[in-house]
Amino acid sequence: MSDLVVYYTRTNTTKNVASIIKDELDADVLEVIDKKNRQGPIGYLRGGLDAIRSKKTSIEYEDVNFEKYDNIYIGTPVWASKPTPAIMEFISQNNFTNKNIILFATMMSSGGEETVDIMKKLIEDKDGIVVNSFVIATKTDDITDVTLKAIRN
Ligand SMILES: Cc1cc2nc3c(=O)[nH]c(=O)nc-3n(C[C@H](O)[C@H](O)[C@H](O)COP(=O)(O)O)c2cc1C
Protein backbone atom coordinates (compact mmCIF):
# COMPACT_ATOMS: atom_id res chain seq x y z
CA MET A 1 0.00 0.00 0.00
CA SER A 2 1.29 3.45 -0.71
CA ASP A 3 0.18 6.41 1.32
CA LEU A 4 0.42 10.16 0.94
CA VAL A 5 -0.15 12.63 3.77
CA VAL A 6 -1.19 16.13 2.71
CA TYR A 7 -1.36 18.80 5.38
CA TYR A 8 -1.41 22.48 6.13
CA THR A 9 0.04 23.78 9.38
CA ARG A 10 0.47 27.17 10.99
CA THR A 11 2.16 26.19 14.24
CA ASN A 12 3.33 22.62 13.47
CA THR A 13 0.74 20.54 15.35
CA THR A 14 -0.79 19.16 12.16
CA LYS A 15 2.71 18.71 10.77
CA ASN A 16 3.58 16.59 13.80
CA VAL A 17 0.57 14.36 13.15
CA ALA A 18 1.65 14.07 9.51
CA SER A 19 5.13 13.01 10.69
CA ILE A 20 3.71 10.31 12.95
CA ILE A 21 1.72 8.92 10.01
CA LYS A 22 4.78 9.17 7.77
CA ASP A 23 6.92 7.21 10.23
CA GLU A 24 4.29 4.59 10.94
CA LEU A 25 3.27 3.91 7.33
CA ASP A 26 6.41 4.96 5.49
CA ALA A 27 4.19 7.49 3.77
CA ASP A 28 5.13 10.37 1.51
CA VAL A 29 4.30 13.83 2.80
CA LEU A 30 3.10 16.93 0.99
CA GLU A 31 2.90 20.27 2.75
CA VAL A 32 0.46 22.84 1.45
CA ILE A 33 1.75 26.38 1.90
CA ASP A 34 -0.65 29.29 2.24
CA LYS A 35 0.82 32.28 0.43
CA LYS A 36 -1.04 34.66 2.75
CA ASN A 37 0.88 35.62 5.86
CA ARG A 38 -0.86 33.84 8.73
CA GLN A 39 1.73 34.60 11.40
CA GLY A 40 1.25 36.61 14.59
CA PRO A 41 -1.98 37.92 16.14
CA ILE A 42 -3.08 39.68 12.93
CA GLY A 43 -2.52 36.50 10.93
CA TYR A 44 -4.56 34.61 13.53
CA LEU A 45 -7.48 37.03 13.35
CA ARG A 46 -7.47 37.22 9.56
CA GLY A 47 -7.17 33.45 9.36
CA GLY A 48 -10.24 33.03 11.55
CA LEU A 49 -12.21 35.53 9.49
CA ASP A 50 -11.12 33.99 6.20
CA ALA A 51 -12.16 30.55 7.46
CA ILE A 52 -15.56 31.80 8.68
CA ARG A 53 -16.22 33.49 5.35
CA SER A 54 -14.83 30.56 3.33
CA LYS A 55 -12.53 33.05 1.66
CA LYS A 56 -10.26 31.66 -1.03
CA THR A 57 -6.50 31.80 -0.71
CA SER A 58 -3.45 31.16 -2.90
CA ILE A 59 -1.48 28.04 -2.12
CA GLU A 60 1.61 26.25 -3.31
CA TYR A 61 2.82 22.67 -3.05
CA GLU A 62 5.06 20.31 -4.91
CA ASP A 63 3.71 18.62 -8.00
CA VAL A 64 2.59 15.12 -7.06
CA ASN A 65 1.12 12.29 -9.09
CA PHE A 66 -1.84 11.22 -6.95
CA GLU A 67 -2.38 8.15 -9.12
CA LYS A 68 0.62 6.55 -7.36
CA TYR A 69 -1.18 6.39 -4.03
CA ASP A 70 -3.77 3.98 -2.63
CA ASN A 71 -4.62 6.19 0.34
CA ILE A 72 -4.44 9.94 0.72
CA TYR A 73 -4.51 11.47 4.21
CA ILE A 74 -5.57 15.12 4.31
CA GLY A 75 -5.03 17.07 7.53
CA THR A 76 -5.93 20.56 8.64
CA PRO A 77 -5.96 22.62 11.80
CA VAL A 78 -9.47 23.69 12.88
CA TRP A 79 -10.05 27.40 12.35
CA ALA A 80 -13.32 28.72 13.77
CA SER A 81 -14.80 25.21 13.51
CA LYS A 82 -13.85 25.03 9.82
CA PRO A 83 -11.03 23.66 7.68
CA THR A 84 -8.29 26.13 6.84
CA PRO A 85 -8.59 28.12 3.59
CA ALA A 86 -5.39 26.43 2.35
CA ILE A 87 -6.83 22.92 2.68
CA MET A 88 -10.18 24.00 1.20
CA GLU A 89 -8.25 25.37 -1.75
CA PHE A 90 -6.17 22.20 -2.06
CA ILE A 91 -9.31 20.06 -2.16
CA SER A 92 -10.93 22.30 -4.73
CA GLN A 93 -7.86 22.17 -6.99
CA ASN A 94 -7.53 18.39 -7.14
CA ASN A 95 -9.30 15.33 -8.44
CA PHE A 96 -10.13 12.58 -5.94
CA THR A 97 -12.21 10.28 -8.09
CA ASN A 98 -12.20 6.78 -6.57
CA LYS A 99 -9.40 7.65 -4.16
CA ASN A 100 -9.46 6.39 -0.57
CA ILE A 101 -9.27 9.47 1.62
CA ILE A 102 -8.59 9.69 5.35
CA LEU A 103 -9.34 13.08 6.88
CA PHE A 104 -7.90 14.48 10.08
CA ALA A 105 -8.12 17.71 12.00
CA THR A 106 -6.20 19.11 14.95
CA MET A 107 -7.72 21.64 17.33
CA MET A 108 -7.51 22.96 20.86
CA SER A 109 -10.83 21.56 22.00
CA SER A 110 -13.83 21.91 19.69
CA GLY A 111 -15.05 22.19 16.11
CA GLY A 112 -13.26 19.15 14.72
CA GLU A 113 -16.32 17.15 13.71
CA GLU A 114 -17.80 20.13 11.84
CA THR A 115 -14.45 20.62 10.13
CA VAL A 116 -14.18 17.01 9.02
CA ASP A 117 -17.80 17.04 7.80
CA ILE A 118 -17.13 20.04 5.57
CA MET A 119 -14.08 18.35 4.05
CA LYS A 120 -15.92 15.05 3.65
CA LYS A 121 -18.70 16.69 1.68
CA LEU A 122 -16.24 18.42 -0.65
CA ILE A 123 -14.31 15.20 -1.26
CA GLU A 124 -17.46 13.19 -1.88
CA ASP A 125 -18.71 15.85 -4.30
CA LYS A 126 -15.53 15.02 -6.23
CA ASP A 127 -16.23 11.26 -6.08
CA GLY A 128 -13.54 10.56 -3.51
CA ILE A 129 -14.22 7.86 -0.90
CA VAL A 130 -13.75 8.98 2.70
CA VAL A 131 -12.80 5.74 4.42
CA ASN A 132 -11.84 7.14 7.81
CA SER A 133 -11.44 10.37 9.75
CA PHE A 134 -10.12 11.42 13.11
CA VAL A 135 -9.87 14.52 15.24
CA ILE A 136 -7.23 15.43 17.81
CA ALA A 137 -7.93 17.86 20.65
CA THR A 138 -4.53 19.01 21.85
CA LYS A 139 -5.99 20.22 25.15
CA THR A 140 -6.83 16.66 26.21
CA ASP A 141 -5.46 14.13 23.75
CA ASP A 142 -2.05 12.55 23.41
CA ILE A 143 -1.27 13.29 19.75
CA THR A 144 0.76 10.13 19.17
CA ASP A 145 -1.73 7.79 20.85
CA VAL A 146 -4.76 9.13 19.01
CA THR A 147 -2.98 9.16 15.66
CA LEU A 148 -1.59 5.65 15.92
CA LYS A 149 -4.90 4.28 17.15
CA ALA A 150 -6.76 5.92 14.26
CA ILE A 151 -4.42 4.77 11.52
CA ARG A 152 -3.98 1.24 12.84
CA ASN A 153 -7.69 0.58 13.11
C1 LIG B 1 -7.49 31.29 13.26
C2 LIG B 1 -7.57 30.15 14.23
C3 LIG B 1 -8.81 29.67 14.63
C4 LIG B 1 -8.89 28.58 15.51
N1 LIG B 1 -10.13 28.07 15.84
C5 LIG B 1 -10.22 27.00 16.67
C6 LIG B 1 -11.50 26.40 16.99
O1 LIG B 1 -12.55 26.78 16.47
N2 LIG B 1 -11.51 25.35 17.88
C7 LIG B 1 -10.38 24.86 18.48
O2 LIG B 1 -10.47 23.93 19.27
N3 LIG B 1 -9.14 25.36 18.14
C8 LIG B 1 -9.04 26.41 17.27
N4 LIG B 1 -7.80 26.92 16.92
C9 LIG B 1 -6.60 26.24 17.43
C10 LIG B 1 -6.00 25.32 16.38
O3 LIG B 1 -6.99 24.57 15.69
C11 LIG B 1 -5.05 24.28 17.00
O4 LIG B 1 -4.11 24.94 17.81
C12 LIG B 1 -4.37 23.46 15.92
O5 LIG B 1 -3.95 22.22 16.46
C13 LIG B 1 -3.20 24.19 15.30
O6 LIG B 1 -2.64 23.41 14.28
P1 LIG B 1 -1.24 23.81 13.59
O7 LIG B 1 -0.25 23.89 14.72
O8 LIG B 1 -0.96 22.68 12.66
O9 LIG B 1 -1.40 25.11 12.90
C14 LIG B 1 -7.71 27.99 16.03
C15 LIG B 1 -6.45 28.50 15.63
C16 LIG B 1 -6.38 29.54 14.73
C17 LIG B 1 -5.02 30.05 14.27
TrEMBL record:
<dbReference type="InterPro" id="IPR008254">
    <property type="entry name" value="Flavodoxin/NO_synth"/>
</dbReference>
<dbReference type="Pfam" id="PF12682">
    <property type="entry name" value="Flavodoxin_4"/>
</dbReference>
<dbReference type="GO" id="GO:0010181">
    <property type="term" value="F:FMN binding"/>
</dbReference>
<feature type="domain" description="Flavodoxin-like">
    <location>
        <begin position="3"/>
        <end position="153"/>
    </location>
</feature>
<dbReference type="InterPro" id="IPR029039">
    <property type="entry name" value="Flavoprotein-like_sf"/>
</dbReference>
<protein>
    <recommendedName>
        <fullName>Flavodoxin-like domain-containing protein</fullName>
    </recommendedName>
</protein>
